[in-house]
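Could you please consider the sequence and fold following this short note?
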Amino acid sequence: MEVTIRQEKPADYNDVFEVIKASFLNESNSDHQEQFLVNRIRKSYAFVPELSLVAEVDKKIVGYIMLSEITIQNNKNKFPALALAPVAVLPEMQHNGIGSKLLQSAHDKAKELEYELVLVLGHEEYYPRFDYEPAINFDIQAPFEVPKKNFMLKELVPDAAKHIFGIVVYPEEFHI
């Protein structure tokens, strides 16, 4: 199976909406609103078009990933970072490496754009395969109650988080 990863285009929005909806339909840890979050982020300052990617098989969109801008803030400083939300693959296409390809492509593109950190609230057994580790190890905290093992960080640049500490600040579009 040949998988093509490319930047999302506005013409893809409806297909992406359906992929995300289907992907999270049976996910017990989901509020089933991820597709609406993506629509809101696309209209916000946090949206980075180059980090909104689709996966295609036979010219059909089967997967999606979005990285958007966030900050890590403490009493003195603000540090730029990215939030991974969501990564989605159609249920019938899962376990074929599509999510992995989306993640790797998004990480590579983010690094190319000179971002250094990505944070995710996700499965503690999935994301460590991609070098994510608990954000608390870096003294970076979520702005809400969440199991520490599920709030993770990936350094795109070695030691990028070494001197960063604080609380993640999400754009308001995440809170609606």
The chain has one domain: 3-174. Helices lie at 13-24, 34-42, 98-112.
